[in-house]
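stage 2 :: seqdesign
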C-alpha cells in the first residue's frame, strides 16, 4: 500500500514512528475494524486531531465507540491513493472528518436508533438536554423573559425558574445569560 512512503513523501507532514509527544493525526491500517481495533485505539495515545483508519475489508465496530475514541476519518483500502491520504490528513488536522458514503448511511442509522431507542424514551436529546429545556433556552435566547416563556410554553413561572436553576447548577454556570451563551456555543440551540 505504501502508507509510510505516502506520508513521508508529503513535505508538509512529519512522520513520527512511535516517538514521544502527542501526534496531531494518527493513521492506522486495519484489515477489518472490530472490537480489537477499538481496544488498540483505546490503548494508544490520543492524537489532537484524531485517528484516520485505512480499512482493508470491513467495518464491524460500534460507531459510538469509534466517535468516542476520536476516529475522524475512514478510507477504504480500495480507494486509497497518496493524494487522497494527504487530503484527508489535512482535513482531519483542520477539525474536519471524512467517511465513505456506505459508512455515513450506517452512522446515520445508528444515530437514529440511539435517539429513538435510548434518548427519546428518557425525554432526552443527543445534547443531553430535554426537549423542554431546549424550548426554554431557545425562547430565552430570543429575548423572552420568564413570564413570557411561561405563557408561551404553558408552564408555571416557578417551573421555568427551576429549569434555569437546575441547568445552571448542573453546568456550573453563573446566570441565565451565561447559560444561554453556553447553549449557543455548544450547538444545543
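stage 2 :: out
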Amino acid at each position: 500500500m505504501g502508507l509510510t512512503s505516502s506520508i513521508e513523501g508529503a513535505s508538509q507532514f512529519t512522520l513520527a514512528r512511535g516517538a514521544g509527544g502527542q501526534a496531531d493525526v494518527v493513521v492506522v491500517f486495519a484489515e477489518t475494524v472490530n472490537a480489537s481495533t477499538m481496544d488498540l485505539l483505546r490503548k494508544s495515545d490520543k492524537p489532537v486531531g484524531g485517528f484516520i483508519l485505512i480499512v482493508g475489508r470491513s467495518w464491524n465496530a460500534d460507531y459510538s465507540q469509534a466517535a468516542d475514541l476520536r476516529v475522524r476519518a475512514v478510507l477504504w483500502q480500495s480507494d486509497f491513493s497518496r493524494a487522497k491520504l494527504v487530503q484527508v490528513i489535512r482535513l482531519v488536522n483542520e477539525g474536519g472528518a471524512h467517511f465513505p458514503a456506505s459508512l455515513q448511511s450506517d452512522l446515520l442509522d445508528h444515530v437514529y436508533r440511539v435517539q429513538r431507542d435510548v434518548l427519546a424514551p428518557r425525554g432526552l436529546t443527543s445534547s443531553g438536554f430535554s426537549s423542554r429545556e431546549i424550548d426554554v433556552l431557545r425562547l430565552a435566547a430570543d429575548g423572552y423573559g420568564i413570564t413570557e416563556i411561561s405563557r408561551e410554553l404553558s408552564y408555571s413561572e416557578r417551573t421555568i425558574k427551576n429549569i434555569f436553576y437546575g441547568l445552571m447548577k448542573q453546568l456550573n454556570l453563573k446566570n441565565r445569560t451565561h447559560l444561554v451563551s453556553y447553549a449557543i456555543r455548544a450547538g444545543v440551540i
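stage 3 :: structure notes
- The first strand starts at residue 25 and ends at 33.
- The chain has a mean pLDDT of 87.
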